Amino acid sequence: MAAEPQKPLMPKATAVWLVDNTSLTFDQIADFCGLHPLEVKGIADEDVAKGIKGQDPVSSGQLTREQIEEAEKNPKMRLKMAVSKYKMPPVKVKKVPRYTPVSKRQDKPDAVYWIIRNHPEFADADIVKLIGTTKATITKIRERSHWNATNIKAVDPVTLGLCSQLELDLAVTRVNAKRERAAKRAARKGATLKPISETTGTAPAPAAEEPANPDEGAPADDSYNLSSELEQD
């Protein structure tokens, strides 16, 4: 898999400088800076990036003057980042909580309640990632112990503007895929209920035997013995 081309550290500022100081096409500048050609056109028309000071990519070592001059002569040529003289260590991006505008934060309980009702397969962590709330709030809404529980109603988070439809669809797909993987792992391990005799080590009690015939092996009736003695007399 090919590595993604590196882009300037300050794409819009770099685009501003290239628009002001070169005759490169909008497509060339957009491709190098990772912007849309219409966005570059907006920069040229001063509708976009107002107040942004241009960043010279030549002085910062991201482009060479020779490459720019060559690209100006050939509109089909695409600029490439110059090889850096110094190898920068990779920077690990720290995950930050999802930001929600203050005006929409009071809508979070309604969105959480909607997800709980319509997507019970969502774990608390999935809701936190999608809506940007806390597990404590989710627990209170589930238990109906939230301070505003009587006024909470189920409302689609997309309608509330707390996430996009694409984000919601991706979250549903991710949760369902996670459940399918868990089910397959459980099936491979044979995680099924075992008989009680195997889990407790006790076998079921044998069936009770029928009682023996009381007449078998019993002594002769006394009336029979008395009649025999009378016959002998």
Taking all Cα atoms into account, the compactness measure Rg is 40 Å
Largest sheet: none
Number of DSSP helices? 11
Model regions low in confidence, pLDDT < 50 over at least 5 residues: 220-224, 226-231
What is the helix fraction of residues, given as a range? Answer: 40-55%
Describe the structure in brief.
With 233 residues, the chain is mainly α. Helix content is 46%, strand content 0%.
Report on this model:
By secondary structure, the protein is mainly alpha-helical. It contains eleven helices and no strands. It has helices at 11-21, 26-33, 37-44, 65-73, 108-118, 124-131, 135-142, 157-160, 165-189, 196-200, 222-232. Helix 1 (11-21) runs antiparallel to helix 2 (26-33) and helix 5 (108-118) crosses helix 7. It is elongated.
What labels describe this entry?
233 residues; mainly alpha; 11 helices; single chain; disordered C terminus
List the topology elements.
Elements: H1 11-21, H2 26-33, H3 37-44, H4 65-73, H5 108-118, H6 124-131, H7 135-142, H8 157-160, H9 165-189, H10 196-200, H11 222-232
Helix pairs in contact: 1-2, 2-3, 5-7
